[in-house]
Design goal:
The protein is an alpha/beta fold and about 500 residues long. It contains 15 helices and 22 strands. The strands form 6 sheets. It has a 7-stranded mixed β-sheet, sandwiched between helices. It has a 6-stranded mixed β-sheet with strand order 9-8-7-10-11-21, with helices on both faces.
Length: about 500
């Protein structure tokens, strides 16, 4: 019998609660195309209940139960969650794999990162206590001033399906560390592990309403959450089209947003490199997570002097990638998440071909896999900068290639995109790498690698890839407001106005 996902309800105010309309969305294993369970479909009525629960949690006991509790108390909760995730790591990883198609080894790694992210923000929550009332140096001795960092309030967190639990926790952990109360709305294409996170929160005794989890469709649950007047901030990771709608909704009530959107990131390979090391990083940068990475370095810009040799080596590396059911040992490329994504990716490939590009390798379903949404890792050459494949995000295992002659030309090609999330440069000349890292228009630059990510380092983009940063101290700042407190300390009157005459 096929693995099934646990049947869960919405998680509101510390309890499981059936959605008001009682509708559910099927969960499909993308490797088998079989239905393996279902998730609740929240609507605007459920959003109302969840926002009210978060509001109560934020202000309960005048905030002393959570919002203005010590950072040390919140840290204890986050560490308890991390311990439970670690305890259930294998189970969570299998659920992630059958829900979104991620190879099991990757999913295990993700669960380790999930626990690590909670631990990291537990440390930062404790650090907040020491930073409160930090004095400011002023030019006038008659005043003393300090700063308070306070939680922004009730936050809506809308997250994607490519790292279902990890990217949710990139927002949940810092929001809770800051003292916010949150409503998490994961993607309807992969919500299973987020619902299991709810069970973990219930087990460790997270105060009711501090984290509420609503699964459902974007237009039925995400949109009313984004526009809700009692939600103080929205943090979103996903498509540009949805990000634009969230900005529009937030603008009506002047609500802050942070957005991590699409990308079409470059990887520049110079002529002085080790071909095999560079080929592996190039493959990893585009085909990791089945090619479904917002920061995928999916535009290869390779020096013309080594282009033929390099592509020959790269094709050999790519053909050696094990494509299989993601639960199989050694799988390195599983299916894409859904039938819709599968069709979209194949359309991108066929359009590239019709526009005159060459499919060097891949571009089709693997012959040995008759079921599932599998696409062979694809390399496309003879690409021009006007082609769709060069300009638009595919979100699948597709790499397009151009060659360059000079460093200036490489930079021009790298920056020839409306996006600015990730970028990579591979060269043994570290001075050149430094020049490139300064000149490239992106929020992240990798040197002699692609895609490493650490919760201590900021993550986010420029241009149409969004604004704001997840992770690191910057991720915590997303959920804090800064309050200036200034006191007049002199015994002397201010003396600006002439005092009225005394009777």
């Amino acid at each position: 019998m096929a693995l099934q996902v646990p049947r869960r309800q919405l998680f509101i105010d510390g309890q499981w609660r059936e959605s008001l309309l009682k509708n559910r969305i099927p969960v499909i294993n993308p490797a088998t195309e079989q239905i393996i369970g279902d998730i609740p479909a929240a609507t605007s009525e459920d959003v109302e209940i969840a926002v009210a629960a978060a509001r109560r949690a934020f202000s309960r006991n005048k905030g002393k139960d959570w919002a203005s509790a010590s950072g040390a108390f919140r840290a204890k909760c986050l560490r308890a969650i991390a311990a439970k995730i670690t305890e259930r790591k294998t189970e969570f990883a299998k659920l992630e794999t059958i829900d979104c198609g991620k190879p099991l080894d990757e999913a295990v790694w993700d669960m380790e990162d999930v626990a690590g992210c909670f631990e990291y923000y537990a440390d930062l929550a404790e650090g907040l206590d020491a930073k409160q009332k930090a004095p400011l140096s002023l030019p006038m001795e008659t005043f003393k001033s300090h700063v308070l960092k306070e939680p922004i309030g009730v936050v809506g967190l809308i997250t994607p399906w490519n790292y279902p639990l990890l990217m949710a926790v990139w927002k949940v952990a810092p929001a809770l560390a800051a003292g916010c109360a949150a409503i998490l709305k994961p993607s309807e294409l992969a919500s299973v592990t987020c619902l299991e996170l709810a069970e973990v929160c219930r087990e460790v005794g997270l105060p009711p309403g501090v984290l509420n989890i609503l699964t459902g469709l974007g237009h039925e649950a995400g949109a009313p959450l984004a526009s809700h007047p009692d939600v103080d901030k929205i943090a979103f990771t996903g498509s540009n089209a949805t990000g634009s709608k969230i900005m529009t909704a937030a603008a009506h009530v002047v609500k802050p947003v942070s957005l991590e959107l699409g990308g079409k990131s470059p990887i520049i390979v110079f002529e002085d490199v080790d071909l095999d090391k560079s080929a592996e990083w190039t493959a990893f940068g585009c085909f990791w997570t089945n090619g479904q990475i917002c920061s995928a370095t999916s535009r290869l810009i390779v020096h013309e002097n080594i282009a033929k040799q390099f592509l020959d080596r790269l094709v050999k590396w790519v053909k050696n990638i094990k494509i299989s059911d993601p639960l199989e040992e050694g799988c390195r490329l599983g299916p894409v998440v859904s039938a819709g994504q599968y069709e979209k990716i194949l359309k991108f490939i066929s359009t590239a071909k019709s526009e005159g590009a060459t499919i060097l390798t891949g571009g089709v379903r693997p012959k040995h896999l008759k079921k599932g949404y599998f696409v062979e890792p694809t390399i496309i050459t003879d690409v021009t900068t006007s082609m769709q494949i060069w300009r638009e995000e595919v979100f699948g295992p597709v790499l397009c290639v151009k060659t360059f002659r000079t460093e200036e030309e490489a930079l021009e090609l790298a920056n020839d995109t409306p996006y600015g999330l990730g970028s990579a440069v591979i060269s043994n000349d570290l001075e050149r790498c430094d020049r490139i890292s300064k000149a490239i228009q992106a929020g992240i630059v990798w040197i002699n690698c692609s895609q490493p990510c650490f919760c201590q380092a900021p993550w986010g983009g420029n241009k149409r890839s969004g604004f704001g940063r997840d992770l690191g101290e910057w991720g915590l700042d997303n959920y804090l407001t800064v309050k200036q407190v200034t006191r007049y300390v002199s015994d002397e009157p201010w003396g600006w106005y002439r005092p009225p005459s005394k009777l």
